Amino acid sequence: MKRWSIFDISVVVLLFAALLAWGPISQKFFPAPAIVPGPAIAATNAPAAVPPGVDVPSAAATGTTLEARAEAPVLSAPTNAAVADAVSVLPEETHVVLTNGMLRVELTSHGGGICSAELDRYPTANQRDSAPVSFNFRAWPAMSYDKLPGFDAQSAFSIVVAPGGRKATLEAVSGGVRLVREIVVPEQGYQVQVTDSFENRGATAVTLPATGLRVGTMGRIAGETEISGFTHLGIDSLNSVGGEKTRHWGSGGTFGGTPALGDFFQEPALRGGGCSMGKPAPTRQMPLSINERINQDLDWVAVKNKFFVQIVKPPEPCVGVDLRATRTTAPGEQPGNPASWAKVALLRDVSAALRFAALTLKPGETAQRQCQYYVGPKDYSAMRNMGVHMDDIMEFGWFKPVCIALLWLLNHLVALIPSYGLAIILVTLLVRGIFWPLTHKGTESMKRMQALQPEIKALKEKFRDKPQKIQQATMELYKKNKVNPMSGCLPILIQIPVFIALYNVLRSAVELRHAHFLWIHDLSEAENLFPGLLPIVSGVNFLPLIMTALSVWQTKITPSTGDPAQQRMMVFMPVIMLVFFYSMPSALVLYWTANQAAMIIQMLWHLRHAK
């Protein structure tokens, strides 16, 4: 059986770096056309038999029996004409605001939902006078009911705000049923309590039809960029049955066969990953929006962007969720020109609606539904304290334990030295210190391998036509001189878990957003100094250039095994890493730069010790 050499391991590491680098390379040299809003495109697979505005839930989704429907009258959804009449007689919309100094939510009398939310402690831009981050839900109010006659966005609610400005009571009456809604903002934090009480005031039983509870629309925050290879706009949900597993609908399951949000824009035959050459040509243009119903018992649903999230957790599992998303269009995209059709759906915004089964109320009966609604930052400690696997929203992946440890360490270091830049450097030195014995052993092994190169060359000459004999004799030579060819790769391999963990933390954790360090204004973004100065990049980034210079220096002083292929690869490695890191968040580049500097210091110490 063949033993892996340093060259083999190095090639694997190089291929891994090249795989990650493909996104930035393609963005730089093969940029996508500018995205502009386009005309609305109707979906061709929409059912024509259902009148617009009428929701027809499946039997599995309603959870009601035929006997129950026969006994109780059902409040039916209005037709388009009825909706128009209802809108025309609605009183003027009124708004009230609840706040606790951290969170500011605006309520609307039309539907009794949340039409906007503002996070006072998180500025939109990295400027002192920047306005706080705010979310506009007016087109799809959060926590309002979807197509529930008398209690949805086409219905009027009365609103009374309690003293203190943290609690509001909303009320609406329809068909003998009264809905009293209480919305309470906590003293601090971002978790809002929404309690709905449905009371049947009539003399006969009434069935409220299956309905949805909306989660507001979210898009990108102005000025924020995405890390290549990841979709930050997404919808998450936790299954109630079949094992506790959080489903990330934004990223989908390319290898598991389950579709992502972008796949729902495609025809079924075109969905999923793989090579597009083996798929049939599209027969229609992708619609601008999708509304995909998932009939599955769920504990909670989340709608999120890069650093912020909404989470709705009902008191009992809901029976499904409507996944909603809109996409952008590129210039020149025309319905009658298949060559102009977009091949991949680029998401513009996402939203959702939890589905609840029909509810039957006997005369005089009251049913209560208390939901937790979180709208705020993707803060791991807050997500973890909310329980029920909500910390999976961070999408830390396989290296979750390393991500948690790294985030914990960074936050505790920042409590002592208020600088995430210095904290990252200290973490780098700490990791190097912990693994010093391994890296020292690897460096010594590389030096011994370098000393054995004349003997290995002689073996190759002796067994020129017997490659298996050359490998066997080489391994015996290594064993005799107590050389482990794998140990030379340890200095690189031990950094990969920390590197990937920091990579995952940077794409979700809000802590490093707008964190300053030296000339870097935001560690969660690339430097982007002097924008427009260079033609093929958005701005000048000095830190990747420093990292590349250190990488070249390290290559020159690292002991070589004499393998020409490995030497050529080591020459090109700094160039590949420059392309890979150039547009990466500054915190990630800072970590690798500090790691390169520490490796150089260690190598210089070895060289001096050898002399």
Task: Write the topology of this structure.
Blueprint: H1 6-29, H2 59-62, H3 66-71, H4 80-89, E1 95-99, E2 103-108, E3 114-123, E4 132-136, E5 145-146, E6 158-161, E7 167-174, E8 177-184, E9 191-200, E10 206-208, E11 211-219, E12 234-239, E13 246-248, E14 289-294, E15 298-304, E16 308-313, E17 320-327, E18 347-356, E19 359-361, E20 366-377, H5 380-386, H6 400-416, H7 420-434, H8 436-451, H9 453-462, H10 467-480, H11 490-493, H12 496-506, H13 542-557, H14 564-581, H15 586-610
Antiparallel strand pairs: 1-2, 2-3, 3-4, 5-11, 6-7, 7-8, 8-9, 9-20, 10-19, 11-18, 12-13, 12-15, 14-17, 15-16, 16-20, 17-18
Protein described:
The chain is α+β, with helices and mostly antiparallel strands. 32% of the residues lie in helices and 21% in strands. The chain contains 15 helices and 20 strands. Strands 6-7-8-9-20-16-15-12-13 form a nine-stranded antiparallel β-sheet, with no helix packed on it. Helix 7 (420-434) packs parallel to helix 15. It starts with 5 loop residues before the first helix and ends with a helix.
Question: What sort of overall outline do the alpha carbons produce when their principal axes are compared?
Answer: elongated
Structural class: alpha+beta
Helix content: 25-40%
Mean pLDDT across all residues, rounded? Answer: 78
Rg calculated over all Cα atoms: 30 Å
Number of helices: 15
Could you give the count of β-strands? 20
Low-confidence stretches: 1-13, 18-72, 76-88
Order of strands across the main sheet:
6-7-8-9-20-16-15-12-13
CATH class bucket of the domain at 59-388: Mainly Beta
Largest sheet: 9 strands, antiparallel
Distance between the termini: 38 Å
The CATH topology label of the domain at 59-388 is Beta-galactosidase, Chain A, domain 5
